[in-house]
């Protein structure tokens, strides 16, 4: 199983590279020495990302046309010439910017670090830079350095502060990366851009704003491994304590960033971060109102923590310096939940019990935290595979003591005494003695009648033949990436996905296959075996697999299965005969019949 997990991790890493079109590789070898200042980052768990630049002023609209998706890419998407784009600065006057308000929001939200765009791909410097006239000091009527005030306001509150810096892409400079609509790519001299702008500006950022928690690089390019090493070495001298993100490139950097909006499906060791934006764009778009609710933020944060990582959630202030009202409101509400339940998040590590139908787990020495997203209908929470002696169980909010019993390695907790039935995430604390078991990815997945449905994800399959488990990357809006782990390459009857489940309650279950199926795969026959029972089905067409379009999944009910007794069952999915790939299988859902 270890081997399978390792393979999966490599697949995820390589897909990220392909999806992002960047040389984003990460040296995850155990031999790599950790940064001596990494512990604060591992403990932080929650960060705030801010995208703010001239694109914020355009707000997703150029010459009367509205753009969707990554608003900070509007210069590229609309192919706005530099001579027009530079004029936006003359009207950029963020008089509503208030560093104390932003810093207070960060504190209220409960984040432990903040990273803000000093310069994004557009090439505009949101700080006082002597290296260029295309900065907020020289090119705008504002003529102040907002980063001075913000870094000071954050330091006052004891929250780490850092800069995002686009080190390769710079669409303003003739020698910067990726502006092909104004400049001839074959004439670009990237080394001269690095020497004349990127390196001197990074030195300004590492010198003028006090100690930085993080320098967050993005989309590397134009440098060899040796050049990147020299670049890192030169900058590190200024602030050896500052962490560099993995997107500095060439396997360097102090922690791993997954792809934009990506959470790994299983725990990952070492320091890492998932980055999401609050709506569908990183930079402000006036017509993007698809904000994640407080409940969604709280569950996302717990889910990332359960895999051992940090969530850095982005907000996009507008061109006047105001953070969108829903971002303010919903981050504050997430923060209110964290005030009561933060002990289950901050300084935790990945949970040693895999995801259950009720939710996910995080851990600390002597404690397992159960993040109950779905309250069981009978109020009984089953924690399987719990080898240790349990001394105490309570709900974190209100310290409500809860009765429990141990039957072998099964821990049953009765949570009826928890009165707040509306909480998006009720955190239960299990105090135990001794060394906890290792995370067992091969444990059977629990299927219970105490939930509306039970989802058995692709990542828990054992695959045979040529079948693979892969993280697929696709997008909704422009740059709005989605990632789903699926079983792929089911082409012949020897290629199969086998799911070991433990059905805890006898009875009837509707079995539903969740999959994506392009035209060429549709209308083929497949088989679902539950031990020695066999059910035939025919695939239904959903959508083509194209990285730049949404991948649509159907929930296709294919059988009723009667579990006569509680116990272990094997669900096998495979093609009925040799053909094209059957589908991309996301999960099997078992829905108890009442
Ligand atoms: O700052 C945010 C993004 O703007 C930045 N990273 C996050 C934190 C980012 N830069 N590049 N990418 C993400 C990936 C770029 C993907 C691309 Fe495309 C695919 C560039 C061209 C094809 C997305 C889709 C952008 C244009 C079309």
From TrEMBL:
Domain Glycoside hydrolase family 29 N-terminal: 21-342
Keyword Cell cycle: no
Top-tier EC class: hydrolase
Annotated signal sequence range: 1-19
PROSITE patterns reported for this sequence: PROKAR_LIPOPROTEIN (PS51257)
Membrane-spanning parts: none
Single biological process term from Gene Ontology: fucose metabolic process
UniProt KW keywords: Glycosidase, Hydrolase, Signal
GO annotation, cellular component aspect: lysosome
Domain of life: Bacteria
EC number(s) recorded for this UniProt protein: 3.2.1.51
Molecular functions (GO terms): alpha-L-fucosidase activity
Family recorded in the similarity comment: Belongs to the glycosyl hydrolase 29 family.
Its biological purpose: Alpha-L-fucosidase is responsible for hydrolyzing the alpha-1,6-linked fucose joined to the reducing-end N-acetylglucosamine of the carbohydrate moieties of glycoproteins.
Protein name from the UniProt record: alpha-L-fucosidase
